[in-house]
Design goal:
heterodimer; A: alpha/beta; five-stranded mixed sheet; 8 strands; 32% helix; B: 143 residues; four-stranded parallel sheet; 16% strand
């Protein structure tokens, strides 16, 4: 994608009168880091980037923003928020529209067709991260790592993020402005992670997940980063009734992880943020993808595609599968 | 597991059909296993999937949710929602390694005392096969 075009468009949007600020990506302070950028006027647009390191889903900032009470005599700031989205992020926005988490006229969506993102952990394994800022570009099928004046070609298969291997919507499903050309969808591999677990017996699976959930430190990063976990009154914070105890042990961790995954059943748009931010490296993406696949195969429902759809868990069809019922 | 293992089963029954069905089984003197602890709820759609998880945490070896037949719900559509949600929960629990024999769902109407007996027998039999639930049950913590 042409960065000049991106910055020009962003500057135009950010200087619009009805736009409060624009959320995009900018280079982080070191290595492969990329940080979110909140741009309030045309000048700030110069630092924006869109590179294979822009994995973060910015849609979460739509609901994460703190809404302070408006002082008496002042009008609330109802200006729009402009947001740069990749394919998966745009699905999060669509799902938010479905759930009335946001209204369509509250956002300006700048779509960035995405040829696939890098998993920075995989990249750091091959090319250890240094303090020196690095730049990564798309180079045909592969990636180009530019650091200290040196250019290194990185094969796509080696560093492509798992969510992108299984991505079916690289182009934004909803956008006001689309930057650059639409990308072609690529051939999808099979979801090996989920398939491998499904191939195990029940006891083996329990053992596998026991090992994973035991690592959980209950930091709730997965909840906080998720663009679709935005309940103001989350069951995890609630004490009366206490749905999930706060103690960090295997039983409560499992209950928490089941609850988290279940609350995203039929809502998760597979942006992979929960797994990316998890400090304990729990493969949360597998749980989410498994549920997303069940929802797709059994109920023929796909979240975040149609803004006029009914929410999955708040609707039903008379002929839903009931083969599990005695 | 020992042959004389008696499972604890928590059953969430809807007030209008299944609870009345279980009541009918009682008044008709139908014999069925006594492993079941019934919790009456107003509708199967009221059963939060986390109830099931919580019951297992607190020492249940199996959970049964029972409601009206589709189309018969007192609240018109509560059991349809329950079917969707609990169906997903069953898939999820199976995926994280909870034996699918531990969680059952059934439709029992107020006139089906004998069906209730069959459902309970099946649930208890399955829970016995699966054995005591040790998975993510809460352990007593020694301070």
């Amino acid at each position: 994608m042409d960065l000049e075009q991106l910055r020009k468009t962003a500057a135009e949007v950010a200087s619009r009168e009805d736009v409060k600020y624009l959320v995009g990506w900018k280079p982080g302070t070191y290595g492969y880091r990329v940080a979110p950028a909140f741009i309030e006027n045309a000048d700030g647009a110069a630092e924006l980037i869109f590179s294979p390191l822009c994995t973060a889903n910015l849609a979460t900032y739509l609901t994460l923003v703190e809404e302070l009470p408006v002082p008496r005599g002042q009008e609330p700031d109802d200006r729009k928020i402009a947001l740069m989205v990749k394919g998966c992020d745009s699905r999060a926005v669509t799902q938010l529209l479905v759930e009335k988490g946001i209204e369509r006229d509250e956002v300006v969506i700048i779509g960035c067709p995405c040829p696939g993102m890098i998993d920075d952990c995989l990249l750091a394994e091959k090319y250890p991260e240094t303090e020196e800022p690095a730049e990564v570009k798309w180079d045909g099928e592969d990636f180009l790592l530019i650091r200290g004046g040196e250019e290194t070609k990185v094969a796509r298969d080696e560093v492509l993020a798992e969510k992108c291997r299984l991505c079916r919507y690289p182009n934004p499903v909803v956008s006001d402005i689309t930057l650059g050309e639409e990308v072609e969808t690529w051939e999808l591999g099979e979801d090996q992670g989920v398939k491998e677990i499904e191939g195990k017996g029940v006891d083996e699976r329990a053992e596998y997940w026991a090992e994973q959930f035991d690592k959980c430190v209950r930091c709730y990063s997965c909840r906080n980063v998720c663009p679709l976990c935005y309940c103001q009154d989350c069951i995890l914070d609630r004490l009366n009734p206490t749905w999930v105890n706060r103690s960090v042990n295997f039983s409560e961790n499992t209950a928490f992880n089941i609850a988290r995954a279940f609350h995203l059943a039929g809502r998760c748009i597979e942006c992979g943020e929960c797994e990316r931010v998890c400090p304990a490296n729990i493969p949360l993406g597998k749980l989410n993808r498994k549920l997303a696949r069940e929802v797709r195969d059994k109920y023929g429902f796909e979240p975040g595609v149609d803004p006029d759809a009914e929410p999955f868990q708040a609707s039903f069809k008379p002929d839903d599968p009931e083969d599990f019922i005695l | 597991m020992s042959a004389d293992f008696e499972p604890n089963i928590v059953a969430f029954l809807c007030n209008w059909c299944s609870y009345a069905g279980a009541d009918l089984a009682g008044t008709s003197r139908v014999n069925y296993p006594s492993n079941i602890q019934i919790i009456r709820v107003m509708c199967s759609g009221r059963v939060n999937p986390l109830y099931v998880v919580n019951a297992l945490q607190q020492g249940a070896d199996g959970v049964l949710v029972s409601g009206c037949h589709p189309g018969d719900c007192h609240y018109m559509e509560g059991n349809y929602y329950a079917r969707r949600r609990l169906g997903m929960l069953k898939d999820l629990m199976e995926f994280v390694g909870v034996d699918p024999k531990r969680f059952h769902m059934s439709w029992v109407s107020a006139s089906e005392g004998h069906k209730w007996k069959e459902v309970v027998e099946k649930t208890v039999e399955d829970a016995k096969e699966a054995g005591p639930f040790e998975g993510f049950r809460r352990r007593q913590i020694d301070w």
